[in-house]
Amino acid sequence: MRAARFPRRRARGYDPDQVHALLDRVADALSGRARVSPEQVRAAVFREVPGGYEQQAVDRFLAGLEWQLAHQALPPTSLRSGRDLLAVELPRSTSGYDRAEVDAFLARAALALDGGRRMTAGEVRHTRFTTTSGMRRGYRVREVDNLLDELERELRFRGR
């Protein structure tokens, strides 16, 4: 959800920063980290800016999120096994999360998805990585955070 993108309008459309701020809050709510009501999603109003997101596409997406919040439904994830988790290719960046730390954590998480070790959604939520800069390239922060959100949802779905 945090990685959601929408078609842009040449004319005026919803402010992408405001849309993503709401999506971040809803993602936190679906992960149990925050409270957002379906009514708050329905009542959301976004500033219109040139080149913003197409309003109808955003509104359709938000209607689905409103339903998920109302029914406490966790969206399905693509992480059915440890193999699925390890198959995700994380892009590298000149400043990002330390690759060795992320790889070690994902290896432990893959074992947990396959039943070989215990890991909870709370552990995923509270995981922190060292950041890198300069010559030591790391994994791009946003993509790692998106993957951790998905892993947390999968573990919650499994009752962990």
How many strand segments? 6
Helical proportion? 40-55%
Q: Kindly report the spatial arrangement of strands forming the biggest sheet.
A: 1-2
Largest sheet descriptor: 2 strands, antiparallel
Q: Which regions contain 5 or more consecutive residues with pLDDT less than 50? A: none
- Cα-to-Cα separation, first versus last residue: 21 Å
Structural class: mainly alpha
Strand content: 5-15%
Any idea how many domains? Answer: 2
Q: Radius of gyration, Cα only, in angstroms?
A: 17 Å
Order of helices and strands: EHHEHHEEHHEEH
* Net shape: globular
Subunit arrangement of the protein: single chain
Q: State mean pLDDT (0 to 100 scale).
A: 87
Organism: Actinosynnema mirum (strain ATCC 29888 / DSM 43827 / JCM 3225 / NBRC 14064 / NCIMB 13271 / NRRL B-12336 / IMRU 3971 / 101)
Protein name: DivIVA domain-containing protein
Structure notes:
- The chain folds into two domains: about 10-70, no CATH class; about 80-155.
- Helix 1 packs parallel to helix 3 (about 55-70).
- The protein has helices at about 15-30, 40, 55-70, 80-85, 100-115, 120-125, 140-155, and strands at about 10-15, 50, 90-95, 95, 130, 140.
- The two termini are about 20 Å apart.
- Helix content is about 50%, strand content about 10%.
- It comes from Actinosynnema mirum (strain ATCC 29888 / DSM 43827 / JCM 3225 / NBRC 14064 / NCIMB 13271 / NRRL B-12336 / IMRU 3971 / 101).
- This is DivIVA domain-containing protein.
